[in-house]
Amino acid sequence: MGWIGIGESVRSLNIKQSLFQLITLGMIVSSALMLWKGLICLSGSESPIVVVLSGSMEPGFKRGDILFLHMSNEPIRAGEIVVFKVQGKQIPIVHRVIEVHERQEMGEVDLLTKGDSNPSDDRMLYARGQFWLKRQHIMGRAVGFLPYLGWATIIMTEQPIIKYILLGVLGLLIITSKDERHKFSAAKT
Length: 189
Known about the structure:
The chain is α+β, with helices and mostly antiparallel strands. It is 40% helix and 21% strand. It is built from four helices and six strands; from the N terminus they run αββββββααα. It has helices spanning 2-43, 151-158, 160-176, 180-188, and strands at 49-51, 66-70, 81-84, 93-103, 108-114, 138-146. A six-stranded antiparallel beta sheet has the order 1-2-6-3-4-5. Strand 4 and strand 5 (108-114) form a beta hairpin. Helix 2 crosses helix 3. The longest helix has 42 residues, at 2-43. The chain is elongated.
């Protein structure tokens, strides 16, 4: 048996170890996706967590703060901080509602927003010819925040090389890591 038997045993162990690492990675990714989908269901928002990307809401929220959103059927009121998406723009905007016009006969609500540190309202940010936001533009209301924790997202977005380096390092760690249980079971045999 000699060296050939040992070689087969090592090769079998490497395949099992690689398969185990692949399954573990799949479980981590699946868990993260399930957590995200759970947050979407609980919050009623398509994006329950957002990062503040500009200083337009200072001093209340600073660039890099993480906001937690919730969306309910309750009417949106002036003074609330909302996150909205404008047609033609991919990045959601975090601003305060400054005017609400309710048209009860039609059951519609028009909203006007403004960044706390901006000199004027957001009509220039809305889609061409749009002067008010409708409820369908609103992604959620800010219900909580964590200061500065969104900087990791901002840095990886603005400096993509950092994201690729981080992914490469994580990939190398996964590939080169050794599972202690496999070492122990191999040593026993």
